[in-house]
Amino acid sequence: MKPPCGYEAILELPPDDLFERWLVRPQTASGSLLLLRCLRPDLAEQPALRERLRRDLVEVARETPPGFVGPVYLLEEGGRLYALEPLVLGDRLSRLLATGRPVPAPVALRILAQVGAHLHAMQQLGDESEPVVHGTVSPSTLLVQFDGTPWISGWGLTRTVDWVAEQAPTVLAQRAAYIAPELWNGGPVDARADVFSLGAVAYELLTGRRAFVGAEVAHIRAAIEEDRAPRPVELDPKIPVELDTLLRACVARDPDTRPRSCALLAEAFERMLEHGRPVDDA
């Protein structure tokens, strides 16, 4: 990928499931480093996907909620769509989990509580007629700064329920294990879909294992729809019963079984961090 006119390529970064990525600097005396995303060539050939991304990115560039990394500038050149974002000095949570070992509970709970609060703030941008969910919160969409501050990427890629529902059946394998069953099935969707996703991330952070596994996306989907997540305490006997109960509720197939909101889930993680137990009304 060649950066657009006016930007100098500093470093090519590993692509994610939708975008080629570069570290770039504007060709100005005071230009700061930015993250440049460009839709992968094979995906850019799909007009519907390209147009949807353009509409969503243009809209969210005007209102990125706290805790999210969103586009600050959009441009098109040579038939390609580019999005420029602030640079987060840190790493993706997926890299931290690559060892297969759990993250220390105090660190994990602090990250989870902050992410839950950010997701709740994002959801307040919607309403009953057009709820806003992220839909694909996963270790690959969560960034952690070197000081431990978490950020959520993907703002604008899955902004509305319709967009999330359209994309869920074709999402790549690295996000499949974190998508709520109602998104797979095209059912009614609300904030509890993000509770499921964050719960699946929490499960992996605290046990070192994914809640739902499979050799193919279809196998992962079946495990989600059949409620086949093992109890966390079976993977790590040191996990408190209260935390085991909370994690199993988060990744339940039935949304009514989950905590009602990301705000309540964030409070539960905060309470466990401070006092070692979740809130009673989560």
SSE diagram, text form:
Blueprint: E1 7-13, E2 19-26, E3 34-39, H1 41-44, H2 47-60, E4 73-77, E5 80-86, E6 90-92, H3 93-96, H4 105-123, E7 142-145, E8 150-152, H5 161-167, H6 173-176, H7 181-185, H8 192-207, H9 217-225, H10 232-235, H11 241-250, H12 262-275
Antiparallel strand pairs: 1-2, 2-3, 3-5, 4-5, 6-7, 7-8
Task: Explain what you see.
This protein has 2 domains: 80 residues, 2-Layer Sandwich (Phosphorylase Kinase, domain 1); 186 residues, Transferase(Phosphotransferase) domain 1 (Transferase(Phosphotransferase), domain 1, Orthogonal Bundle), CATH 1.10.510. It is 39% helix and 15% strand. Strands 1-2-3-5-4 form a 5-stranded antiparallel sheet. Strands 6-7-8 form a 3-stranded antiparallel sheet. About 2% of the residues have low confidence.
Largest sheet: 5 strands, antiparallel
How do the strands line up in the largest sheet?
1-2-3-5-4
Radius of gyration: 19 Å
> Which structural class do the helices and strands define?
alpha+beta
Give a brief rundown of this model.
The chain is of the alpha+beta class and 282 residues long.
